[in-house]
Amino acid sequence: MATATMQPPKAVIPPQPAPSTAVPIKVGVYGGQGSGKTTSTALMALALSKEVYGGAPVSVTDTEPGWQFLRPIFAAEGVELIQTTQPTFKAMLRDLRDAEKRGCCVWAIDSLTIIWQEIMKAAQGNKSQIQIQQWGDIKAVWGEYTTAFLNSAMCTFALGRLGNEMEEQLDDKTGNTKLVKVATKFKAGGSESFGYEPHLLLEMSLERKAKRKAGSTLEGEGRMVHRVDVLKDRTWALNGAVIRWSDKPGYEKGGYRQVWSSIKPHFDRVQQTMARVTINPGDSSNALFNSDGQSDWYEKKQRKEVLSAELHATMDSLWGGTAVAAKQMRMKVFEHIFGFKSKEAADAASLDKIERGVRILQAFERRCKVNDKLLASTELDILANLDIDIREFDEGVAQENDLPF
Prior knowledge:
Blueprint (H helix, E strand, L loop, with lengths): L25 E6 L5 H15 L6 E5 L8 H7 L3 E4 L4 H13 L4 E5 L1 H13 L10 H17 L3 E16 L6 E10 L13 E14 L2 E18 L8 E5 L10 H17 L22 H24 L4 H15 L4 H6 L2 H20 L8 H16 L11
Parallel strand pairs: 1-5, 1-7, 2-3, 2-4, 4-5
Antiparallel strand pairs: 5-6, 7-8, 8-9
């Protein structure tokens, strides 16, 4: 008689949604406080997850934060919401990459305005204002984000605050000029705004529908309607359209379909007219931040401070003290190595130039330890010996000490 062998139960692996071949949409949403940006974006994300991507997760970098209040609607639809809340440029780029690795179908940044402000604060540092020469680096790092936003295989949404476009106009009555609001903009990315990057740009505002009772309008009562002005649609499907989404007292399963029916013409046209085209970014090695979001500008600033301290410490060890002769010798050596002697020129010197000076001075210090009579030489002999170290460094044959970074 055969005996049955008990087999351990097989682990149940939940079915994974098949990779979608859909072309991702790139959407910008901006508006004033309470206009419905966050909730409307959440409903659009839910629609994409349920209708296109088989229930794949949705990720948001939530800087304010507010998406935790929307968890019930994601739970109602069985869609995982991944919410991170660190409001930095570095964290935002990391979140975008992590969302792709986790198989998310949608990633949103809410709000991009906060990230832009964080970049401005980092660039300004302890200065009174951002220096004009920094704007090239700032634009380069911002370009890295927009490239990641557009290149992602996920549908990406950028939410931002409302800004006003102001223009100086002449007052015919007074003859004076005055600033006049001429348009609105997506408040991120400097004066150019973020409105140029998305394929679909939506401006949201709030309308109040007054309550009517027995033929009379009741002031201060009624319901809110979220108005959507389509300012740009690169497919032309919705260009210039005005969409209204009524506010609801609560969420019922399938409630995302109201917004889905509104944006579906854009989604369908994207599938018909666009393949997934990616941007090949150029070299941004001098950008304010690298591809990991690390502040290259801040890192260079720190290295420059360390090198400056190392330079002064080495100079003091060789010609320390407050005597006039020691001070004069430090100044002559400094000028001999760097070619300048003013504090302003030293502050403006490049990181490479300062490192070169530190290396040369360290080489001279090593030779002084071997020949302790070298420091007692005449000024001309000291400068002549420095010339040896300068030449050896520039020819690439000098021995190098480790630097403290």
